[in-house]
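sorry for the late reply, my laptop died twice this morning and i had to redo everyting from scratch. anyway the thing you sent over, i finally got around to it. pasting the sequence first so we're on the same page, its 259 residues, then the predicted structure underneath. double check i copied it right bc i was rushing
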Amino acid sequence: MTIGIFDSGMGGLTVLSEAIRRIPMEDYYFVADTLHVPYGTKSKEEVHGYILDTVHDMMKHDIDALVIACNTATSIAVETLREEYPNLPIIGMEPAVKPAVEMNHSTGRRVLVFATPLTLSLPKYYALVSRVDDSGIVDSLPMEKLVPFCESMKYDTDEVKEYFLEQLAPFDLEDYGIIVLGCTHYPYFKPLLREILPSHIDIVDGSTGTVRRLAALLHRYGMARGKGSGKVVFHNTNEDKIYNERMKDALTYLQHNQL
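ok and here's the structure:
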């Protein structure tokens, strides 16, 4: 069985890393839409078209399940994809706001969500926060530079550190108990964030929950056979062989740091 995983760029490798750890004996086909990264600063209509085109091409590779390893892409196109491919198990992502709110109930502290500007502008995000945040403890912060930093493999440079400090300056971090990484590119910055943030702040993202749902769905459909070789095939829409090698390096970085 081949599990397809799709993102605008390297962010989805955070989900792939978790999938390999939890579901090791399947094969994976990872696609990065490098022609159009980043999604988070583009219009909803543009991104919708990019997603449909890329997934259409992925289907030519006989994938048996699809993970949309991108919060922005999920918000924009998951329902359309499920309509177009009704027999394909499709897993989307959303920022881990619900578990963050539940974890923070006992602390009395607030939750801060990092996400792309487009994700934060979509009705799906506001519906999520409205549904789970009865106490009004969730704040949102657009972090548009993090995807370009990640795509350049700048995870802990002085430039990145200064950007975080600048963005966080208006917030009293003593008021916050959890930061939600609402984009799959953002977990690359966990080591740097742990240096910057007060020790009482937890950092959560959606990769673990997404892979758990994937595993459950595969079992439900009787597809979790574990007969693959654990092979990973990388592809990007620019057909750039160097970028594919960089993705392999990025996956190694994630696995080495257990991100």
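The two ends are 25 Å apart (CA to CA).
thats about all i looked at so far, will dig more tmrw
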